[in-house]
Design brief:
By secondary structure, the chain is mainly beta. The chain is built from 6 helices and 38 strands. The strands form 6 sheets. It has a 22-stranded antiparallel barrel. The protein has a 5-stranded mixed β-sheet with strand order 1-6-7-4-5. It has a 5-stranded mixed β-sheet with strand order 28-27-35-37-36, with no helix packed on it. The chain is globular. The relative contact order is 0.12.
């Protein structure tokens, strides 16, 4: 059994194993040490994995206030979306069709995904992109990482490193939909050759493209570091507070042509209000010329609520007594409720890297504990006489322990060939309040243990060309709702992914080219089928066989001295290989109809994705970027029905950047970005609920319901994105 004691024993033994030769220059050594914890998880140029690196300069080009998903949107196989329609507020992305709960995200090697829901909400980290040094995106299973499995992709974020000189920079943006961003970044530089301090304060606000989809976002980032001769100690704090007006319902299908900014929420305080603060402490030590060691402790606290107005609600369902007014008994009423989440997440990560002959070794892992409290309060009811009414109608708590240990070896078999082995053991212990076999509320516990091996080789053909191949296995546990809204008899099992990647790279003076073939074979993938479990809830259901396969092509070509072109394309097939049984509610009978489907597409998995960026330098001070992104059609459920389809779309952006020399500022830059230049109307996300009724037509009474040509009705909400809009940014640095 892999528990805390085993984990600590391994940790204490690691320093005695003996590592890669480090640069002798003091500053270079300190920079390397500051990245040991990140490099332990990352792929390097000879790792046989599919990955893309994004530098700080690339991030800064379009960092005008939109969330991180929009700053990485041009990388291969990425599809982004925004509830508010303009890239600020609730945003997200998918990679190769994998949703955010399947994408492992770490900050400086520390897990960011929520332990229960397994998602990441960038709205909780406003302007975090301004404090990122670089990003690595691994597609497929990738290298072993900390936290949840990279079940389709992983994103590794490294925050700002060492700045030798003192600085102060302010970034300010203004744009469509009353968008406004202001930040200030500052640092002391290296003091007495030992200390450095950096910080950032940010505020972003926007009215959103969708009606009332406002965002009021604030954040800070602080770090301090002590640099010894062969060690680095760094403390980091970053915090964010968001208050966004909800636009979660989306827009009815029938409104997309006439009222595409429609928001069904009208209650003035229909908001999401949440704060989250992260604390990290990193220590890196060069134990000898051949040994580097890193350990990090972390703690995150988050707390907040979303408030909702609910009409004609049963008082008994909230644990409230009926209200007697004269001779009348009130059993249902309008009310306002707040659903709260208060959670704590803490633990430690560690890694050691070592070189023995021709073998580069990395040992590492992590242990963490998550504690989450979920509770709801009714804060107002229509007939309450108490102005301070605050009734708690549910409360439950969960704990999750996550431990993993990995060992990686990259063996230089010859001058041309490297062989890679990566083995990971992960254990999960999840304790929560759920339902027992009789459907009664009771404390439940789930214990899972996974083995995730990866193998591959990297071969250099000549000075300009190389190829690689890898095979990896990943396992992923169900999320919170899959456990809490089922009994032990109806809970889904974990998923397993077998991923094969074969790639080719060519680097020339004028051209860089890469191609990657992938085959992701899933066993027991969890999808929504509409099926109700034994307690009447819709949760994910395991499908026996499904797959994603395709080719990713990317490259860059220097057309002239002033004109460069970068592009990528993904062609893929994403299918449920086994028979898929859809469960559709029958409103006439109260039962469920079963519909069988064969060879259907996985939801939200377009078969074609491509991106293009043309960069032209007009003199030394002006840069022009013409950016295009195409997403092929994608289905919003797993039936491949044309009734539940998002059309393909092509979006073009134009960005103009101008630098000028100033006697006052070290940096002076003006950026104008025109998004959706050709003013296209498109939708990139949706939700769906299917039902059947032959007795009555509900589409006239609910604007979210539309007829289904196959039979029955679809209740659906769509998320239209902004038409032509503008962002103007000014950067000034001292």
């Amino acid at each position: 059994m892999f528990n805390k004691k085993n984990c600590m024993a391994v940790l204490l033994a690691l320093p005695f194993i003996g590592f890669a030769q480090q640069p002798s220059d003091s500053i270079s050594l300190r920079k390397v040490l500051g990245e040991v914890n990140v490099n332990a998880l990352r792929a390097n140029e000879k790792t046989p994995m599919t990955f893309t690196n994004i530098s700080k300069s690339e991030i800064e080009k379009g960092n005008l206030g939109q969330d991180l998903p929009y700053l990485i949107s041009l990388t291969s196989s990425v599809v982004t979306t925004s509830d508010a329609g303009a890239g600020i507020g609730y945003t997200g992305f998918r990679i190769r069709g994998a949703d955010p709960t399947r994408i492992n995200i770490t900050v400086n090697g520390i897990p960011l995904n929520d332990s229960e829901s397994q998602g990441v909400w960038w709205v909780n980290m406003p302007d975090f992109s301004s404090s990122i040094e670089n990003i690595q995106i691994q597609r497929g299973v990738g290298t072993s990482t900390n936290g949840g499995s990279d079940f389709g992709a992983s994103v590794n974020l490294k925050t700002d490193g060492l700045n030798k000189e003192a600085y102060a920079i302010t970034n300010n943006s203004i744009g469509s939909f009353a968008t406004l961003k202001n930040n200030i970044e500052f640092g002391t530089g290296l003091l007495n050759d030992k200390f450095a301090f950096d910080g950032r304060l940010s505020k972003i606000s926007s009215d959103g493209y969708i009606d009332r989809a406002t965002s009021d976002l604030k954040s800070l980032y602080l770090q301090g570091a002590y640099f010894g001769d062969k060690s680095v100690l760094k403390g980091i704090v970053f915090s964010g507070h968001e208050r966004t007006y909800q636009a979660w319902n989306g827009v009815p299908l029938n409104y997309l042509d006439t009222n595409r900014t429609f928001n069904s929420y009208t209650y003035e305080n229909e908001v999401d209000d949440y704060s989250q603060t992260h604390y990290q402490l990193h220590y890196s030590q060069q134990l000898s010329n051949v040994t580097n060691f890193n350990i990090a402790g972390h703690f995150t606290h988050g707390e907040g609520y979303y408030e909702q107005e609910k009409l004609n609600q049963s008082l008994n369902s909230y644990g409230l007594q009926n209200i007697i007014i004269g001779n009348d008994t009130i059993t249902a009423t309008n009310l306002v409720r707040r659903k709260w989440l208060s959670n704590d997440f803490g633990g430690f990560t560690y890694s050691l890297s070592q070189k023995i002959g021709n073998i580069d070794l990395t040992f590492g892992g992590a242990s963490s504990r998550y504690s989450g409290e979920h509770y709801g309060n009714v804060i107002w009811i229509e007939y309450a006489s108490n102005a301070d009414f605050n009734h708690q109608y549910y409360r439950n708590k969960a704990e999750k322990f996550d431990h993993n240990f990995y060992a990686k070896a990259n063996y230089k078999y010859s001058d041309a060939t490297n062989i890679y082995v990566d083995l990971q053991r992960r254990r999960i212990d999840y304790i929560f309040e759920g339902l027992d076999s009789e459907g009664n509320s009771a404390e439940q516990e789930v214990n899972l243990a996974f083995f995730n091996p990866k193998f591959g080789f990297y071969h250099t053909l000549n000075d300009n060309q190389s190829l690689y191949a890898s095979f990896g296995v990943a396992n992923k546990e169900p999320n919170r709702s899959d456990y809490t809204e089922s009994t032990p008899e109806s809970r889904p099992t974990h998923e397993t992914l077998y991923d094969t990647e074969i790639g080719y790279k060519q680097i020339g003076n004028k051209m860089i080219f890469g191609a990657n073939l992938y085959f992701m074979n899933y066993k027991n993938q969890l999808i929504m089928t509409g099926k109700l479990n034994d307690v009447g809830e819709r949760t994910h259901v395991n499908v026996a066989e499904s797959f994603r396969k395709g080719i990713e092509i990317e490259g860059m070509y220097k057309l002239t001295k002033k004109l460069n072109w970068a592009a990528n394309m993904t062609l893929s097939e994403n299918k449920i290989a086994s028979a898929f049984i859809e469960h559709v509610d029958n409103w006439d009978t109260g039962g469920v109809n079963e519909l069988s489907h064969e060879n259907t597409d996985l939801a939200f998995s377009p078969n074609v994705i491509w991106a293009s960026q043309l960069n032209y330098k007009l003199g030394d001070n002006i840069s022009i970027d013409f950016i295009s992104k195409y997403i092929g059609k994608q289905f919003i459920d797993n039936t491949s029905s044309e009734n539940r389809l998002l059309n393909d779309y092509l979006v073009n952006n134009l960005r103009l950047s101008y630098w000028w020399d100033s006697k006052i500022f070290n940096t002076a830059k003006l950026t104008l970005q025109i998004n959706n230049l050709l003013n296209n109307e498109y939708v990139n996300n949706a939700w769906i609920y299917r039902f059947i009724s032959d007795i009555w037509d509900p589409s006239g009474s609910d604007h979210y319901v539309n007829s289904d040509s196959e039979r029955g009705y679809n209740m659906a909400g769509y998320y239209p994105q902004a038409t032509r809009n503008y962002l103007l940014g000014l950067t000034l640095g001292f």
